[in-house]
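Support case: user asked for a sample of complex input and structure output to validate their parser. Sending the pair below.
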Amino acid sequence: MTKPRTPWWLWLAVTVIVIFCLFPFYWMINVSLKTGADLASSKLVPPNPSLAKYEAIFNNSNFTRALLNSAIVSITTTVLALVIGSFCAFALARLKFKGKFWLLALILSITTFPAIAIAAPIFKLWTDIGLFNAPFGLGLIPPYLTFALPLAIYILTSFFKEIPKDLEEAALVDGATHFQAFRKVVIPLAAPGLATAGILTFIFAWNEFLLAVTLTASPEARTVPAAIGFFTGATQFEVPLGTISAASVVISIPLIVMVLAFQKRIVAGLTAGAVKG
Amino acid sequence: MSERRLAAFMVSPSLLLIALVAAYPIGYAIWLSLNEYSVRVAGLSRWAGLRNYEAVLSDPEFWDAFRTTFIFSISSVALETVLGLAMALAMQAAFRGQGVLRTVVLVPWAVLTVVTAIMWRSIFETPIGFVNSVLGTETPWLGSEPEALIVMIVADVWKTAPFMALLLLAGLQTIPDEIYEAAKVDGAKAWQRFTRITLPLLVPALLVALIFRTLDALRVFDLPYVLTRGAFGTNTLSLISFQTFQQDRIIGLGTAMAVITFVVVMTVSFLYIRLVGGNLRGLAEE
């Protein structure tokens, strides 16, 4: 089929979409580079760009500690979700047992739970057993895993099902156990699925806010979203919006890099559940 | 190890986690909501029956939050659907820029919700923002009703309309070209092709996207927390519950609000499970 020439209105629509998606983020970068009186001007380009706010946030131990906590929580959650999730997904995709439909329904129903219904009782439980405000945000990992697992299991099950059974059966004929076939044949072949599930889990954990503010109360425990929430309150701790903008730009960078690098995988993972219906 | 025992072994970590960190807390929340807890003496509590629920349901602030949550959900999901559909159609028509567009629309999706709120504050709040100087007004956008709720809806639409567009684009791409070709041969106009072919065939993808988004919107928390702390008519079910059990430490009352939120959201999600039920069976089949 020959490609017709793109009409002018389509160029216009594409331009509008690009501006709609990118301009607000550009404006925040713009604000983060302005200083003093320039902040009160609505100029599109900072007249005297300065990195002072970025220096300030990196010299702020609360912010750098929050970055460390966020990294620890997100990476741990991702690794655990992939290990536990791929176990469950393999059983769902390849092993024979009863009640698969109900198991999957139970797991996926978690995605519809409002986090607040879990946050309230876990706040009380964690306070009672001493996990509330645990250092490095470690108390966040169990609930994050619970919320991340359903999506990981769903994506991994779909991927495992698409791997041809021949290779695995050949391994079984050669005397491998089901578990060896899983570890040595299926997992390497499912690397793209693991990457997709891993990226989405990481983004979820990096982004999460409600549980983070519920279960942390000091800089030793706060993740970045919780720290930003804390510093924007109408309290004596309030930090100016310009400085918060700089922090916001910094913590968005890892995610934007991931999106640029893994665009196809992310879209495939996000749309996996929605289209087949 | 037999196949069934291996299956049990591989499934059990996930099940254990769900039982301990989802099912048990929900049950515990119901228990907490039926008791009263002393704010002064830690650990002191007494049975309250349904008193917490009576108190919540006769609290006008709770009903304000209830109403705000629904106004927010309905208006933002409606706007996101229309805008997302328009974006999806433009993306499908744009042969060349499609790869770039897909990456660009993922940016709002990837930006943290907390950052989204900061971003829209930096746009609306004077003197840093430009909205008032462009419109020539002096509105305190985040300090008045209903303007604050409008900012909240705008922020949500910005963040999620592109996501909606991606879901709908995937749905559009499952419609075979042959149907359009046949309709063209039969002389159907562009608008007829859209209303008679595209829309009906897009219904399944549209419904799933709609319900996904509605569930998310009903749980909204991050945006009102960072934009206004729930002031000026922006308090929501999740936020008022958090304020009650976490900030004010009134655990019984706060968990009662959380349980009510849970029931409201689960009622809506029941619809969702019925819609994707067939999908699940496909995945669970041999």
